[in-house]
């Protein structure tokens, strides 16, 4: 740092005392005695001044210019500022100011030496008096003025000794090199210049501060995480930062959930089972006196949308106890141990608020059967399930916490989860029957304006297979459609169109191709005629050519009863009705003109026929159940491990029996079409004109051509999709 120290100190001293007085100044000598560390720095000032005179300095500073002006002959040690000399009466004041500047220069130079510097470490480079451009250096090299070259910083900096012919002195200058080209090395060797490379001098202090600077942020981050984790006293997961071990259950401490049993309709059997649990929670002593214990868990099993979650809320509202609700998937995260930690936290909070209810929706996400995973590594889901089993039974005893879980896939749940002591009861919440659907429709239509022609009992008969959620959606869609049409009440037409939209999809663009429209009309009338003339089939409700979804036309059937038990005659009638569309195409247009419109029908009737043989035992093979339940499992590993329960000969017999059923039904369908061709042509003519035929209109036209009576006591609705 000689160069920096000289820039601070020497110009002021030279300006004050002149070049000859620098070393004789008593003040400076005393300061040098007090600060021996800087002695060598100050003594270098004279060399610096001499270099300033002899060398062609580039871009001198103001201090350097003043010092050069003061050292010129005739200056007489006076500091010149322009052409005005400094008055003698201000010399003492100016000297004191300059001495103050010298002191600051000493301090600044001392700090620059003490503090580590990455740009210019302590090295021989500091002895260089000035800088020189690379082109000027090459010029001196060609003139043989370069005597020695020391290379630093991987060959990017050179300290050169250049001989000044005018003063017969050697000057050390610093040159910034553009790398270290081979041409320069050859030229130095040719000029017989003494050159050497010096390794970079790295200060241990600077290395320490560099490493500390690089590691400061990661160390601070880890320290903050450690302090946060150690300071948290989170139940269930004290060692997991950011509350990962906390449960995500929604907690409703207010007993009134806003839902009671009056809001739940169509599931009378399930409501009766839950009434007992409510009595347990309200009057436990009534049962404990008889030695009965409160059930620890109730598993709700049923299809989606049947009201399982609504039932759980109704129990909490009726019993007047706190209510926790969450989904099974909320236990699992990407971090190992989080699921088990959340289970512990959930039950700790539940026990603190007992008696209470814990509702876990879609428990199959965490309660799946163990040991079915591929690989032998640790399974976070199984670890979570083990903790759930421990909390529900284990060594906890009676805690006053009732767990209610819901699933629509009970077959994949672990057997340990289903045993008594954990889930003591399994309540089946199935699809509502006709009476249940009517009750549900009354609940969801209580706040809607219905036309007087709307009959909820008829609507309930028209919606077999609809769940409570489906019926709620139906009434909402009908209300939206009525509002879009500018009506003040919901009419039968609005409800009919809403059913079509929910079941078949949005209404599409009407067909404009005459040939396609005629073919679709014969296809749909073929379904209707074969169904009406086959004993055991449901009556026709509607035939339409209005496209919906992917269907170009639709035929609807109205069941009179729910499909509790279905006879062989009824199943076979469905197959005949399903093949009516393809039979009509073949009889009317010829076998070469049959289309792909019956693809969905063929897939449906093939599945029904195969179930008759393998599941229901309704074939000449005999009353066998030929389908391994594991084959139908939704778990891929279970299907892979499924045992083939039949021989090749038996599989061949199954295929033959299935084909025989379909072939027989197809011949019956073609016979119906041939024998009632006149009725078919008339029905197609009316359908092309009106685009939609009601069941009454269809029956009236068909009765003109035949004495057959369509069977009215069918048990299922079949939707046949064409083209």
Strand order of the largest sheet: 6-8-9-10-7-11
Mean pLDDT: 74
Measured between the Cα atoms of the first and last residue, the distance is 92 Å
Q: Which secondary-structure class do the elements indicate?
A: alpha/beta
User: Would you identify the regions where 5 or more consecutive residues have pLDDT less than 50?
Assistant: 1-59, 73-93, 98-123, 233-239, 708-723
**Beta-strand content estimate:** 5-15%
Number of helices: 26
Shape verdict = elongated
Q: Percent helix among the residues?
A: 40-55%
| Rg value | 49 Å
Number of beta-strand segments: 15
Describe the main β-sheet briefly: 6 strands, mixed
Q: Which SSEs are present, and which pair or pack?
A:
Blueprint: H1 2-17, H2 26-34, H3 39-54, H4 62-71, H5 91-114, E1 130-132, H6 134-142, E2 146-152, E3 157-164, E4 169-176, H7 182-190, E5 194-197, H8 204-231, E6 250-252, H9 268-282, H10 284-288, E7 297-301, H11 308-319, E8 323-327, H12 338-352, E9 356-361, H13 380-392, E10 401-407, H14 415-418, E11 425-428, H15 434-444, H16 456-462, H17 468-484, H18 492-504, H19 514-533, E12 540-544, E13 553-557, H20 568-578, H21 580-589, H22 599-614, H23 636-641, H24 648-675, H25 677-690, E14 692-694, H26 695-703, E15 720-722
